[in-house]
Design brief:
- By secondary structure, the chain is an all-alpha fold.
- The protein has a single domain, classed as Up-down Bundle (Growth Hormone, Chain: A), CATH 1.20.1250.20.
- Helices cover about 80% and strands about 0% of the residues.
- It has 17 helices and no strands.
- The protein is globular and about 65 Å long.
């Protein structure tokens, strides 16, 4: 192929990341749709279920301690492979355990493995895309999280009704091994890939003043050094304050609609499908908006901050969910907030790859992801306590209203702190 006409293989790479992220979120969200069944079989209270969420989040945070640096060390191809094998095995283990303790071990394995997905995927985007395209590429692959959430309300009840809850975990967990085949066939870093030409290679590195990645053992950036950089803390704060909101959307929305609007979770659920479909639009649209602002001449960091401020405002109306008198009003408000979260997420991930060199990206994403998971550990304690308290009082809906009020404020608070930390973002030189 002539080098004069640019190939576009980088978008094939995004497709691989998209499907991996879809599987990642499908596997972690199965538990939310089986909550009533699992509570019955294992005799769990609301707080017991929150403990299962916390176990996953704790393992996820601990996994990020390892995977962020490990992927920077091993490279994206091997690092992603290790992550996917661990989380797929963990997902399938849910279907064979017989006790609450065994279920907790399965959640731990799943959390440890799934922690590698985003550090690996963000590093892949940094390796394959110039900065002006990264937000869109991140938005596209990040929308896989939403597709996984769209598939789950249809797929999980169907498997539950025919084969039982055990097979719901086993079947969804096995899908990851199918993806792994395609990953090894179609993926390699740009400098080693035979499917791209010189024109695309030059495009990928058109605005990067560092050498192309080698995707092999390299110099590991020490976390202690990264913690001394203000830009690291911007990412940490943004993830810590907003990731818990997304986990609430994933793990508690099904039971919210079941308890408040008597939604039958044993059947495919249209309201949840619509909410998670909206998040797909938010993820891609969020990436597109900041990329569009950059192409129109706005500086990269101002474009990211402007887009994120808009998305933070879009979450505020979820406060009005407490006044919803029918299910579709609640669906509309929650859809807007969930879509805004994914748009926010696409930009905060991309901002990390904008600021830090490629050899440190996975480590920084790991640190920020760990912070998000720590928030995700603390928030379920509050959720479980609030919901159990109001459930005993006979008004669990009031408990959900308190949680929605917290969600409404979280993103604006995060944006303000991030802006105060670094009014003018600068590229980090290591």
């Amino acid at each position: 192929m002539s080098d004069t006409r640019k190939t576009n293989y980088r978008w094939v790479v995004v497709a691989l990341l998209f499907f991996a992220t879809t599987i990642n979120y499908l596997d972690r969200q199965v538990i939310g749709f089986l909550k009533p069944t699992l509570q019955k079989d294992f005799q769990w209270s609301e707080e017991d279920y929150s403990h299962m969420v916390i176990i996953f989040q704790t393992a996820y945070a601990l996994g990020l301690l390892c995977f962020g640096g490990l992927i920077d060390k091993l490279g994206t191809k091997l690092g992603y492979t290790v992550s996917l094998i661990i989380w797929s095995v963990g997902a399938m283990l849910h279907g064979i355990v017989k006790s609450t303790f065994g279920f907790g071990l399965a959640r731990t394995t799943l959390g440890l493995g799934e922690s590698g997905n985003f550090p690996a995927a963000i590093k892949v985007v940094a390796e394959w895309f110039p900065k002006k395209e990264r937000a869109l590429a991140t938005g596209i692959f990040n929308s896989g999280a939403n597709i996984g959430a769209v598939v789950a309300p249809v797929m999980v009840p169907w498997i539950l009704g025919i084969y039982g809850w055990q097979m719901a975990f086993i079947i969804t967990g096995a899908i990851g091994f199918l993806w792994l085949i395609f990953w090894w066939i179609f993926y390699e870093i740009p400098s080693k890939h035979k499917k791209i030409n010189g024109a695309e290679f030059e495009h990928i590195h058109s605005d990067i003043d560092e050498p192309a990645a080698t995707d092999g053992p390299g110099e590991k950036v020490k976390w202690a050094r990264l913690f001394g950089i203000r830009q690291t803390w911007v990412f940490v704060v943004g993830k810590f304050l907003t990731d818990p909101i997304w986990y609430f959307f994933l793990f508690w929305l099904p039971s919210y609609f079941a308890s408040t609007f008597k939604l039958d979770l044993s059947k495919p659920t249209l309201p949840l499908v619509l909410i998670y479909t909206a998040t797909t639009i938010g993820s891609i649209g969020g990436g597109y908006l900041s990329s569009r602002l950059i192409k129109s001449g706005m500086p990269i960091f101002r474009a990211r901050k402007t887009a994120m401020f808009i998305f933070a405002l879009c979450v505020v109306p979820i406060f009005a969910a407490r006044y919803a008198t029918n299910i579709w009003q609640a669906v509309g408000l929650i859809s807007l907030a969930a879509a805004a979260h994914q748009a926010w997420s696409a930009n905060i991930f991309t901002a990390a790859s904008d600021v830090f060199p490629k050899r440190a990206v996975s480590s920084v994403v790991g640190i920020g992801g760990m912070a998000g998971s720590v928030g995700g550990i603390a928030f379920p304690f509050l959720i479980g306590w609030v919901l159990e308290t109001y459930k005993e009082a006979g008004n669990i809906t009031a408990g959900y209203n308190i949680i929605f009020s917290i969600c409404a404020c979280a993103y604006l608070v995060a944006w303000l702190i991030m802006h105060l930390l670094t009014p003018k973002m600068k590229v980090v030189k290591l």
